[in-house]
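name: query_chain
kind: protein
chains: 1
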Amino acid sequence: MYVGIDVGTSTVKAAAFDGDGRELSVAARPVGLTLHGGVVEQDMEEVYAAVVAVLGELTSRVAEPVELAGLTGQGDGVWLVDREGRPVRPAASWMDGRAHELLDQWLADGTFETVFRRTGSAMFPGCPGPLLAWFDRYEPASLDAASTALYCKDMVFRRLTGAPAATDVSDASMPFLDPRTRAYDNRVVELLGLTHRRRLLAPVRDPITTAEAAEGLPPGTRLANGPYDLPSCALGAGVTASGDGLLIVGTCLASLVATTDLDLTGEPAGLYISTDRPGHWLRAMPAMVGTAALDWVLTTTGVRHEEVDALLAQTPPGANGVRVLPYFAPSGERAPFVEPRLRAELTGVSLESTKADLIRATCEGIGYAARHCLEAAGLTGSLAVCGGGTRSPAWMRLLADALGRPLRVVEGEVGARGAVLAAAQRYGVRLDARAWTRPTAVVDPDPTRAAYYTKAYENHLSRLAEARGRTRA
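structure:
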């Protein structure tokens, strides 16, 4: 069997696949987040223990020998470790907002735009640049004690194998990696005031690092480290041809489009993720909006997830005039534009509005946000979709209509699947990628509803422009 490990923000999973890509079994364990005053952190020991636990459960449940394993996980954040790979403090999550004032300063003085023009990375508070600069200013002892600032999967790989600390080009893409040379841009390090901390940046291994597992998996199991979860999902969904895209409908909404064109002009937003193929990137628009917005509405209205499909059928497109700008994240939005102070807006609500109206309007708003991201990322080919949102057939139909294009729905552990495919390529193991990435279903848009949503999308863009203007007033 082949094992894919996906170290997510709230859940750690390990999935077993047979040689044809069929999912044999999945083991999962939740991991905690601590949130206080914009600070979002994770206990590295808890995360690592969860990885070992799910691997133990999976390998005891599926008795077949492990041919090889691939590792992926959440990106960004700062995972400070010492020379032995042990944490020197809790990990700062990609969701962390403590560095927002630094980012505001860089937006104002032009540093933000300069970094984007050099690396294609539009920084946000929870990415390594602002976080490392914040630690340097307010918690320098942690940086003094650290040997390396890793990413999540890198910390796990170091502990599972004992290999030296390193990362790959995908995780290194935000914000220090020059996408043309595939090496760190020292001018960017200087612009962020981190030259004296340059030693903390993990060495970039290109292609991804491999080593034999010493813990968690049977001794000697071949393991590959990366790419991180967004590009891993693209591999697992079969998105490799230029112009093809992937929409990950999860806690956040991640839009990815494969490209061979590096365009560092235009409004700074998102990032270019370097892949294992030089000259090939993923133009990524990882928006903060996503299922978290719908979850908030469901919690507020007292609706259970299993009721969503029925409620979507109870109200027509346009939700009887209720409209939602779904920017609920306390850190604002980061793609396809950067607006840290943008907040959600609900309009057209009256005493006659129903729970169904609110839920449909939220789903429509998320659909418009997805369309905005995909257009900005340059989608011209087919579109795959994965993530927790795919469990709602009614939402997938609404999304196909709102986007005005067919959706290749890919279910299951797509990130873990991509990690296995990356590992197989690294080790020279032949797997049929087409069979491994075959869609579960294809959802076609309804022409009439799609035409309606095209006009409604233009209205969404107008309301969004007005809302962005108010944040700057």
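note: The two ends are 58 Å apart (CA to CA).
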